[in-house]
Structures are given as C-alpha cells and as structure tokens.
Amino acid sequence: MSRNSVGANGVRPNSALFSNLHSNPHSSLIAGVDEVGRGALFGPVVAAAVLLSPEGSIALQNLGVTDSKKLTAKRRETLRDRIAEIALDCQIGVATVEEIDRLNILQATLLAMKRAVESLTPTPTLCLIDGNRPVPDLAIPQRTVIGGDRLEIAIAAASIVAKVWRDAEIVRLAQDYPDYDLAKNKGYGTAKHRQALQTLGASPQHRRSFAPCQPLGRTPSKSKRSTQKQSTIENEPLLFDSLGKPRLTWETDAESNR
To answer: What is the pTM of this model?
Structure first.
C-alpha cells in the first residue's frame, strides 16, 4: 500500500503513523499502551493496552484511528468497536482513587498500565508506552514514545479504548453523585465542578490527594437509590469478572443484549 493511499472512510493515513508501521524491527506483535484520567479530580485512572498484528495496524490506520483527543465522542465509540474487532486483544487496567491517593498519580498511572499489559493474550513482542516513563517491573520489552498517541497507531488505538471505557464509568458514577456535573466534565476540574467541591466537599470517589479535593468538613452522600451499594471500583460486578479483571465496556454491553 502506498503512503498516499486513502482509507475506506476517505481518510488519508497519517504519514508519520504509517511510516512507523514499517520501520519498527519488532513489529510482529505490538501492544500500544495509553492512559486517561490522570489530571481528573474524580474517579480512577484508566489505561488500555491494545495488541495488534502488522496487518491489524494497517487496517486501523485506514479506518482513521488517531489520538482520541482529536475525535468526537461518537467517532471514538465507533472506532472502539472496530478496534475490538481487529485487535488481537484489548485490555483495561484500572488504578482506584484509593491507590491514587496512596501511591501518587504517576505511580498509580504506571500501575494501571502494567495491569493492562499483563492481561494481554498472547504476550506482546514489544510494548509502546505513551509518554516518557517506562512501566516498572514489566517483564516485556517496552519503549516509551513521547506524543505516542499521535505517532504510533497502537498507542492511538489504546487512547480511544481507554477514553471510551473511562467516560462510560464516570457517566455511571455521575448517577450516584449528581451535584458535580460529572456526566459533562468526566471528573475534570471545570469551574462548575470546583464550585461544587467548595460547596459540598469531596465525595468518596474524589482524589483527596489533589488540592481542590481537600476535605471541607463534610462528605456528600449518594443519591437515595444507591445508598445500599458501596461505590468503589473494586466491588463493581458489571465491570470486574470473578477473577478481579476489568471487563471491557463492549463485553458488558454484548452480554446484556443476549
């Protein structure tokens, strides 16, 4: 395929991404790894690992897979489904609010990435990690890529998978904590979100180690419909299977329609 060819959706492949598909000597089984939610005030930090064959990488390139931040929510969801079909495997890793506050956000992010990678089957030949920090104690060859979601198709795919998964989780949690405008801000520190923190204080899913979430002497309660359920990521039966591994959003949706 020529670098100047156009994909089926009319999108011309990014030349930098396309070049990397062929220049990588370890391109037999590449996993891209990216995170979302590192700068949020509320909810977990989430990482995705997407395992691609060389053919799968080219297929996603032709579909227009790119940095999730450049895509609309609807486009991300559409591409997420195609990524799930084409990838050899997709896995989610989560670090909870408690882990963020205990470890710090950087270490929690790397932990989420490690969990995602170690859940992949088969084992990648090489992991491409977005950013400049390698994942500690990862027993798989890895390479960090600054701006990787713009430069590596596998990382771009992971950025989409992680973003869609976390957004859905925050929208779900927004039903329990309706006063923070979470469905719109996805846990990030918008003016309305910060004002609610000043007025109500932090919820159990806010990151107490982040300055805007410091306790103000009160903890908001959840809505009445959910007071009997502990709202922690670890205990969510719809998101974690019996082995404690995160279940991908599309797996949950598919099972609910059966």
So the answer is: 0.77
